[in-house]
Design a protein that fits this description.
This protein is globular. Strand 5 (156-160), helix 7 and strand 6 form a beta-alpha-beta unit. The protein has 465 residues and is of the alpha/beta class. Helix content is 42%, strand content 19%. It has two domains: 4-235 and 439-461, 3-Layer(aba) Sandwich (Aldehyde Dehydrogenase, Chain A, domain 1); 239-428, Aldehyde Dehydrogenase, Chain A, domain 2 (3-Layer(aba) Sandwich), CATH 3.40.309.
Amino acid sequence: MAIATVNPATGETLKTFDALNAGEIEDHLVRAEQAFQEHRVTSFARRKELMLKAADLLEADQDGIARLMTTEMGKPVTQARAEAAKCVKTMRWYAERAEALLADEYPDSADVRDSGAVRAVVRYRPMGTVLAVMPWNFPLWQVVRFAAPALMAGNTGLLKHASNVPQTALYLEELFRRAGFPEGCFQTLLIGSGAVEDILRDPRVVAATLTGSEPAGRAVASVAGDEIKKTVLELGGSDPFLVLPSADLDKAARVAVTARAQNNGQSCIAAKRFIVHSAVYDAFTERFTARMAALKVGDPMEETTDVGPLSSEQGRSDLEELVDDAVHQGATALCGGRRPPQHRAGWFYEPTVLAGITPGMRIHHEEAFGPVATLYRVDDVDEAVRVANDTPFGLSSNAWTRDPDEKVRLARDLEAGGVFFNGMTASHPGLPFGGAKRSGYGRELSGHGIREFCNMTTLWYGPED
């Protein structure tokens, strides 16, 4: 895949980039190692100062970087601005809290004495240079939620971003440089996926984090496992959205549309499978379908657009194949199910609701990465849980119920990294984020996220100390 900015609203190639050669990659690795030796011994106060400066710069750049993201991958510009604002919030959150999150821990004094020590300390130390392999769908946020904690912990970062968002990737490197981080502390590598293995095997790279597809995750994890290097993976998702009889149907339908269609439906944590109790199925379906059909598809640079184009022509073709397969096998498109006829240029697809999904359809087990929702009718909570868990993925889940006993049951039995009651899945810097099953492992955000790329070191002091 060429490293290029291609406007998905028009299909026009706007700018292309040459991939780094072997010598240039080596220069980046040298700078990263040198920067780590400097950055790892800086104080938390200094790191805080630098991160707050980066946040201020991003806040000032918010409109410009939003338009750049929209140009490169097609999200509505209003959502792109919100993404930039979320990054600013997260950078400030870690700047203010990293020192406390990584504070020394002191084991129980009885255990210390029993070990033969006079004192013992658990200390979180930075690991080194971490390779981040990141996707295009949230081109700023996915990177910042790694970079902010990693840099505050004293690590350095190398970014291999998706090849269709090169200008956003270069902006991120420049942002941290402008903020005053040591030269080489955070660098963008304009490379193809074929160059990742050699970089990950380099001894100067100590770990990797990847957000992306399951095949990409397997490839990176295999290499890292062979090298005995730490990885954090956030892979695909096919999140269930359960609607049970006690739910507020108006609110559930309204939130369901946002949960399915935000970012043009291209989100791993988007609700994709809507599992509705038969007692409220018809009422919810009517509300949900009407709202999905009313979404405005159009130019993502317009402030009133709800859904822009998919990021690539191949992405739209993949989505069409899933929908066509389902319809061919008996599913019904309650709305959408086609390319919008008024948009002949660009990679647009209508918001779609499919009913009558069966396990034999590809869309039942595969992730639909676009504004396509699938509906399931169930007769009780047991069946709702079975359908929700009938997926190889387990990133997050949504459950709409006001019944306390049902909440206890769903919190216990839904196989996912998160269960969001009466709301949609969303990430927040203060909450750990990650999945189960084939949605990956490890956690980002919160204190759990910043500690993923730290060397948790036990300091033991004997009687002579």
